[in-house]
Amino acid sequence: MSEAASPALTRRRFEPLWRLAGRRLALIPLLMLIVSLAMFVLLHLGRGDPALDYLRLSGIAPSEQAVATVRHQLGLDLPLWQQYGQWLWNALHLDFGTSYITGRPVLLELLNYLPATLWLVAVAFCVTVVFSVLLGVIAGSYPERLPDHLVRAVAFLGVSLPNFWLAFLMVLVFSIWLKWLPPMGYGGPSHFVLPAIAISVMTISINARLLRTSLVEVAGQRHVHYARLRGLSPSRRLRAHILPHALLPLLTASGMAIGELIGGAFVIENIFAWPGVGRFAVEAIHNRDFPVLMCFTLLMTLVYVLANLSVDLVHAWIDPRVRRRTQGPAPGGEHA
């Protein structure tokens, strides 16, 4: 291949990825609009009056005049479609209102809590990937033998245990009885251990079983038999011919795993007094803090969509079949 053809080949390899990213990013505004409308309607269909909640959280007696004043200030005296239109116009200017609890801008409050949650989810995701691959490889390398049965039993137990119950159990054992790890708070690396494990155990169990099944399936394919006939050792066959193909379903499942970890973080943050958006959101749900809940839903939707997009781009980069499906037929019958 000539030197001039190399940049063209590189561009053609990246072009499907840019096209995939462009299509997904173009759909984000529509998705956010649908999510915001659904959340807005659901919040206003619930019981109670946001004006009364605002007065209660502000420590003001809910007289008729105070309720009427607050309803006018919050725009609650307008028809529902006008309320949503006003909220949407302000949201487009990054003004999501002020929290009923703190009286501060909602977006600033959530961005203040977001890093702690993202760090926790990132650590839990790394733990999930490492132990999913480790347990899946152990089970898939010895199908229907003792290591496989042990891993499958552990995975079944991990799927059956609620993460909040596991969190309390780990605090009891490792913090109160053994005094090895801090029971709560946000600080050094030791504070990440218990909440990250509590969040990731169920996802590890699911992914390990998925990888085990994928390994057994790939190990029976023709190219693996040819590698065995060529005299390759079992470890070499695993590294070069089995694991790269078996990891692709796990990579796809990682996108869903991010959503599971984010959802699990909201519960675990309250158990470990973790200063993240999940703990702040739960407090907002108890106090019916509408502006916080609206902004929180959109922010978590955006994080989840971008995380899944990143996983899909990595998958498309690794697997040429995904790139070809994304690219479609080459123009003019051009061959790669």
TrEMBL record:
InterPro entries: BPD_transp_1_N (IPR045621), MetI-like (IPR000515), MetI-like_sf (IPR035906). Keywords: Cell membrane, Membrane, Transmembrane, Transmembrane helix, Transport. Gene3D superfamilies: MetI-like. It is a multi-pass membrane protein. Residues 114-311 form the ABC transmembrane type-1 domain. It is found in: Cell membrane. It holds the Pfam family BPD_transp_1_N. NCBIfam families: PRK10352.1. Belongs to the binding-protein-dependent transport system permease family. OppBC subfamily. This is Nickel ABC transporter permease subunit NikB. It comes from Larsenimonas suaedae. The lineage of its organism: Bacteria, Pseudomonadati, Pseudomonadota, Gammaproteobacteria, Oceanospirillales.
